[in-house]
Amino acid sequence: MTSARDIRPRADDLAAQAQYLSTSPSASFHSPSSHGSALTRTVPLVNAKHLKPFATEDIKVLLLENVNQAGRDILKQQGYQVEFLKSSLPEDQLIEKIRDVHVIGIRSKTKLSARVLKEAKNLIVIGCFCIGTNQVDLQYAAEHGIAVFNSPFSNSRSVAELVIGEIICLARQLGDRSNEMHSGTWNKVSNKCWEIRGKTLGIVGYGHIGAQLSVLAESMGMSVIFYDVLNLMALGTARQVNTLEALLGEADFVTCHVPELPETKGMIGQKQFEQMKPGSYLINASRGTVVDIPALIEAMRSGKVAGAALDVYPNEPAGNGDYFNNELNTWGADLRSLKNLILTPHIGGSTEEAQSAIGVEVATALTRYVNEGTTLGAVNLPEVALRSLTIDEPSHARVVYIHKNIPGVLRKVNEILGDHNVDKQMTDSRGDVAYLMADISDVNSTQIKELYQSLESLNSRIMTRILY
Ligand SMILES: NC(=O)c1ccc[n+]([C@@H]2O[C@H](COP(=O)([O-])OP(=O)(O)OC[C@H]3O[C@@H](n4cnc5c(N)ncnc54)[C@H](O)[C@@H]3O)[C@@H](O)[C@H]2O)c1
């Protein structure tokens, strides 16, 4: 990845026009959010660093909730000013801190509501160093040109490994044997304990996790079949089946890896348990709503299902403690009373490796967005990317124009850009918000400033950034 720091305008060009130069695109050629003061970021700095217009030390980053070291290192290596706090902040302190920063990194505890974001006058991007993004008002952020990134797939391997462990544990009734030993009972049995070699694993949902699992299971000697709404390339000797019913009728172990959608709610219920092989096993490490738990309890009591592992539940507590009770889910006690049932507290993706991978993925996305304007992986803006500018293109500028998706915008924008040579351009929209990126060659800093001001004056404008 070539960072925008490497783009250096010609020294003679810059020296002549130093008074117009910004020290960074966020300080000068970067529009304030519509809720901020226009002056804070549009007045050129007189003490500009002439030979380094993109001064990364101007970018202020606030990292909360003990964001992983790997992610912190990436942001520091960019030269950004990084402030790191181990905990989240109460709302009043958060508002105080967020006023100043261009980038904020959080995990699941920090709530970035519209009330908080309204105060974030300089903010251009939010990094959620986790899977979920419901702690952020995504709509408000999009409408104010603030991109949001997360890391949905960094923990796929961790989930797949947990499922492999659970398949063996269920086949050998390890949970029960361990519990018995903990209470002093020696119970050496082989009845209905199996090797997993030669058994069939049925994967429901062959995405990031399902596909990883497919490879691991085959290497343990299992046959793999899968069901997915998409036609997908099977890995190894795995085989796609056409219906869920076909999968249930053939698999010794059924494991769910589908997203939470209206169509996947209760996807495994009474009818599906009836279609499963007698003495088969069920694993759910996807989302709690996918399996109808009262139906599972019945299927296990009747012996149809010989064992199950659940990592996710329809209602999950917000924190650690004594909360997995009937108040949370009415069937809690019935579930806990079952034999050969492994219950884990949504830890499928909770490993050191996954945390580190999340740190790297989100920090890299933030860096690319700040330096290059690339929105690939953004959860609230259209995904737009252009190939990087290089040091061989010293007088190029990259225009990022986040705007309202209203008729006639592109005509007006292209009238402004049309005075220059537009090397490449891409635009896309997502709901009411659109994102345009264009690389323009042979522009000097006066022209960049004019471009910036012309784009800022359009009534469609949400945020303009010019990277050069
Ligand atoms: N337990 C954990 O800690 C943990 C960690 C990460 C992810 N997850 C969950 O695991 C699930 C899978 O994650 P992923 O990263 O593999 O997702 P993914 O989006 O990569 O894959 C999901 C797959 O399910 C398929 N699918 C969608 N609807 C379907 C349907 N009705 N029937 C059959 N297939 C369907 C999709 O086509 C896709 O191939 C998600 O629910 C995710 O939230 C849990």
Automatic annotation (TrEMBL):
This is 2-oxoglutarate reductase. InterPro entries: ACT-like_dom_sf, ACT_dom, D-2-hydroxyacid_DH, D-isomer_2_OHA_DH_cat_dom, D-isomer_DH_CS, D-isomer_DH_CS1, D-isomer_DH_NAD-bd, NAD(P)-bd_dom_sf. Residues 398-468 form the ACT domain. PANTHER family: D-ISOMER SPECIFIC 2-HYDROXYACID DEHYDROGENASE FAMILY PROTEIN (AFU_ORTHOLOGUE AFUA_6G10090) (PTHR42789:SF1). Pfam families: 2-Hacid_dh, 2-Hacid_dh_C. It is an enzyme of class 1 (oxidoreductase). The keyword Oxidoreductase applies. GO terms for biological process: L-serine biosynthetic process. Catalyzes the reversible oxidation of 3-phospho-D-glycerate to 3-phosphonooxypyruvate, the first step of the phosphorylated L-serine biosynthesis pathway. Also catalyzes the reversible oxidation of 2-hydroxyglutarate to 2-oxoglutarate. It comes from the Eukaryota. It catalyses: (2R)-3-phosphoglycerate + NAD(+) = 3-phosphooxypyruvate + NADH + H(+); (R)-2-hydroxyglutarate + NAD(+) = 2-oxoglutarate + NADH + H(+). Pathway: Amino-acid biosynthesis; L-serine biosynthesis; L-serine from 3-phospho-D-glycerate: step 1/3.
